[in-house]
Amino acid sequence: MRSRTLARGPVLTALGLGAAQLGNLARKTSDTDARGAVDAAWDSGVRYFDTAPHYGLGLSERRLGAALARRPRAEYTVSTKVGRLLVPSPETAHRQDDGGFAVPAAFRRDWDFSRDGILRSLEGSLTRLGLDHVDIVYLHDPDEHWQQASTTGVDTLVGLRDQGVVKAVGVGMNQAAMLAEFVRRSDVDLVMVAGRHTLLDQSAQDELLPLARERGVGVVAAAVYNSGLLAADRPPGDATYDYQPASRELIARADALADVCERHGVTLPEAAIAYPLRHPAVVSVVLGARDAGQSRTNAARLAAGVPNALWTELADLGLLPEVPGAPSTPGEPS
């Protein structure tokens, strides 16, 4: 599988495994299926794995660490996140987590982008992962915490990188505007943008992607299916967009995209994966998987050929803008 090496060292495969579903996102996933998702991703050539304490209150990190334990550490890249500190909460352990994961609420998530909070969070992540280091650390969703995250938070991560504790640092969010501010004002190596560089939302192209390319900051594209609307060959009537019921207008637009894809022998999900990689700032697309079958499907979709004529027709029809600096062969670095 193609890979890109960031300026400070970490190698990211074009496809990464996002481990939120290993944390029982929305519903339970068995230990067997979780391990199968990691094993199948590995067998497909994936060597970049992304997780976070938020995902299943640590369950994702524990499962990912267990699945990678027998793999040579030098052969893969792991990223995790800080900003939501897990604090034991035995008084709520009998309840179900209210953060979107099917796990007991044995911990609470405290927003904390202080130096102490970041160090404690990273220490907990290393313990759960069973690793002595992670390669990349992101500030996680600091939307309502700009002041602390953009000062103490990012300064702490840069200090850890400069000390050699981690190889690269960045920020992961579901919006593009604040990520652009981090790129502009701080010494981050990469950003993870979720849902804002897709077939249905190109807002990251307005400022974030050009700025990242200019500054040499890598971009990881996540949530390229916009939480489900682009995940099937044809969007179902009950499809979701950004974790909410999709509007009729969005479903109609996805159907129009699917019409063009079919004319070129491409599925909608295949195009959804290929599109973000056309931009020269994008170094990886991260997709979730709940079991081995989904991991294999992700890899097959990445490998599918997407002709340039598809992008030309979508642009001619006004369904998709041209990607500045896109290579002639989709997905290949320029």
From TrEMBL:
It comes from the Bacteria. SUPFAM superfamilies: NAD(P)-linked oxidoreductase. GO terms for molecular function: oxidoreductase activity. Pfam families: Aldo_ket_red. Residues 15-301 form the NADP-dependent oxidoreductase domain. This is Possible oxidoreductase (Putative secreted protein). It comes from Streptomyces coelicolor (strain ATCC BAA-471 / A3(2) / M145).
